[in-house]
Amino acid sequence: MRASTFTSVIMLGASLCASTAAMAQEYPVRAVKIITAGAGSGTDYVARLLANGLTERFKQQFFVENRSSGLITADAVAKSAPDGYTLLSYGSTVWIAPLLQETPYDPVRDFAPITIIGGSPHVIVVHPSMPINTVKELIAYAKEKPGVLNDASLGNGTSTHLAAELFKVMTGVNIVRIAYKSGAQQMTDLMAGRAQLGIVTSGSASPHVKAGKLREIGVTSAKPSALTPGIPTVAETVPGYTAGANYVFFAPAKTSPTIVKRLNQEAVAYLQKPETKDVFFKAGMETYGSTPEELAENMRSEMSRLGKVIKDTGIQGGE
Questions:
Q1: DSSP alpha helices (H): ranges in the chain?
Q2: In the chain, what are the helix, strand and coil shares in percent, each to the nearest 5?
Q3: Is the pTM of this model over 0.90?
Q4: Can you list the domains of the chain with their CATH numbers?
Q5: CA-based Rg of the chain, rounded to a whole angstrom?
Q6: Phi/psi zone of residue 91: left (φ > 0), alpha (ψ -120 to 50 degrees), beta?
Q7: How many angstroms from the chain centroid is the CA of residue 143?
Q8: How much of the chain, in percent, has pLDDT values that exceed 70?
Q9: What distance in Å separates the CA atoms of residue 145 and residue 202, rounded to the nearest whole number?
């Protein structure tokens, strides 16, 4: 290659890099769409809070567009142009669904992680009539009377279902699962004692615990949660155990790292505001605000850990 041609190629490359960097710094120059699940859902609520926060931070409109299902939601973003103008706000279903069934997207290949928005731990609750006050007592009771305890569980592959299956695998207990199609029926049977225990979201359990109709014995977060004051973690008895429902923020794969970095910085700044934390807390959630690398590692860890549980127990989606 002639020296003049080589120099021209170098200059062209430098020019393209500078142009890309400049475009990223100017981002966004128009409205940004955040795709999420159906209107009125928990993921929709979180996406709208995030959209409002980013609109304020960027001084440019971020708006929410709802899709009817998780697969459609994630696939729409996976197939969008990687220009930062179509983003995904959803739950950990994004990477759990492909472990349960065929999906039109690959959670690792098709997305650029931005941040873990926040989440809610689950709690183990038992009926007050049960002689069980701690996770240790639950394990001892279940081992002494295998197959006697019933676990009130929601649909296959839900975060609470997987949390229960992980608990059984890690402790070696034989607890019988009873599946429910609705959280209302699940709670009704738990409070009536027709099911002796369940792993449920902390928000759904809270009013019934306060009313004395259920007893919390453990929270599934890795560390004690302010959402469940005074309740020990399951991990204190079962080392390494952790489960919960996280809300996450992604861009399509190949989105400019500079744009991803800016989105992360502004999202985290919003999530760390005391007033933001307060709004999330009142809705039964905590804000996190991770780095893109922490979200990527969380996804890989969850896929490995829960993938093994799903394979070993034969869980399938859509049932």
A1: 3-26, 42-58, 70-78, 93-100, 135-144, 159-171, 183-192, 202-210, 257-271, 274-282, 292-313
A2: 45, 20, 35
A3: no
A4: 3-120+245-313 (3.40.190.150), 121-236 (3.40.190.10)
A5: 22
A6: beta
A7: 31
A8: 91
A9: 27
User: What is the structure's pLDDT at 182?
Assistant: 87
Residue 3 has pLDDT above 80, yes or no: no
- For the record, the structure tokens of 238 come out as 């079962």
* Paired tokens of 102: 């065929």
Nearest C-alpha neighbor of 296 from the set 46, 30, 94: 94
Could you read off the pLDDT of 79-106 as tens digits, one per residue? 999 999 999 999 999 999 999 999 999 9
b (16+ CB within 10 A) / e for 207-218? ebbeeebbbbbb
Tokens 């809070």 — which residue? 49
Length of the chain in terms of residues written = 319
| Spatial separation of the C-alpha atoms in residues 102 and 143, rounded to whole Å | 36
Q: For 184-234, write each residue's pLDDT tens digit.
A: 999 999 999 999 999 998 888 999 999 999 999 999 999 999 999 999 999
